[in-house]
Amino acid sequence: MVALYLLFAFVAGAMIPFQAGVNAQLAHWVQSPVRAAFVSFVVGTIALLVLSIAIWKPLPSGSRIADAPWWVWVGGLLGAFYVAGSIVTAPRLGASVLIAAVIAGQSLASLLVDHYGWVGFREHHVTPGRAAGMALVLAGVALVRFF
Questions:
Q1: 3-state SS assignment for residue 1
Q2: Which residues of the chain have pLDDT under 70?
């Protein structure tokens, strides 16, 4: 089962450079990276609405939703920041440098999230091996950028 999750994550990750390029082109046509991000989210919202209807499951109670911590509601804002940021930077950096930088940012943030057990993750402290891996990721960004 883990192999299927890894494959799904791999394929989802493979879509990111395409998404950045498509959205950057959309920004050209709608003359604004913010509008392009908005259109991207509207299309995504429609797709998720259709999927939600197809796999119908009742919504949780209002009290359950009200009991959720405040920070669980910021995922859409984080997604909007990522999409708008990739739209602005993709044409200037190119797909390879953009995605290398994104992966480095994700990796560094992931080390912190795991180390401190933030946002519901189990604590997994930074070890010398993990720190060395992060250094290699950052070196990879430099190699992709300068060569």
A1: coil
A2: none
